Amino acid sequence: MGQWVKLICGASYQDMPTVQRLVMLYALAGVDCIDVAADGAVVAAARRGLADAVRLAGYGEHRNLGLGLPWLMVSLNDSEDPHFRKAHFDAAHCPPDCDRPCEPICPTAAIQFQAPGQGGVTTELCYGCGRCIAVCPVSAIEAQSYLVSPEAFPVDQLNQIDAVEIHTQTGHQAQFTQLWQRLEPWRPYLKLVSISCPDHDHVVPYLKDLYRIMAPLGVPLIWQTDGRPMSGDLGRGTTHAAIRLAQKILEAGLPGYVQPAGGTNGYTVSKLLELGLINQAASGAPLREIPPNGLPTTQWVGAPAKPSALDAKTISGIAYGSYGRSQVLPLLDAIDQELQPWLGAESSNPRTIGQRTPLSTDLPTNAASTPWPPLHQSALDQGLTLARQLVGQLKSDCHFLSKRYG
Fold it and tell me: Which residue did the predictor score with more confidence, 400 or 109?
């Protein structure tokens, strides 16, 4: 339909409380898919975020809740990839007079110093952007890459994921084939497969080879055009690389759908519209900006106003990573405090990790007597507004918000 929106939490990002709140906010804002690390604990946190969204949306009378929730996707890599790395350094080797430019530049505050010579990288907060490596005056920070093994993902949690994304690079046919074969046990659970690949002179024939390796696939296939990885929050110009690669793949006419990523931000949709790369007929109405605090009519995610064929030369959706996260990250602590009386301890119960988390709409027993904060005065309202402003640029009508927020 051309209105698919995905949130990327980060293939290496393992801060579970943040993932939980990001998933909750963007599920309420109407994304179709959320991409998280292939880690059982992270997936469990993401499912808690979905459960929180369902509870807050107030769909207690509905029993077919899964129809409206975004799909959960996990990311794997077939070889070394910038999305699968962690920064590392020994603070004892840092010069005592160093200004520590690595500390303020880290977008997730993963680098912290307790005292001279003491500190380092908090592993679960690092998603491998590499910005600290570039600014270290003594080149003391290194990137430690790793491969995600599909066998390490808990088998009993395969029914909690809906899709998989494979990060690959041109020329890695052998590595991709090996990984694809190892994913055989996953395939009965998958509703979609995504391939993320950066630009290269021979990227089109490479992707054609990958299609032959996977065929027959049996589920939808997305080509994610990874223009400039993990850069969307650096400036609006970063989107150009993602759009150029999307244009190249669209022109090649590969089977499947094309989704820009890597540098996408608040400027991406307007640039795609300018280039005629968005199917405006999908919703039956021109796409528009969502005004501050403007929440469109309630509708289930993924329920278009009317069927519409996707133009072969238009994108099928957009994935937002660092930019989408940066929009709401400063508000997450305040949102968490606001929602504690409503979501209670069950929302962050570590015992649910690795278990099938039911998407119950039941609120804590004390919630009924807890006054609901006026939405226009809350951090939740600010977060939802920012998320909706981003998602609503491509999705003119679809969202998950209930009458409670109408």
Answer: 109
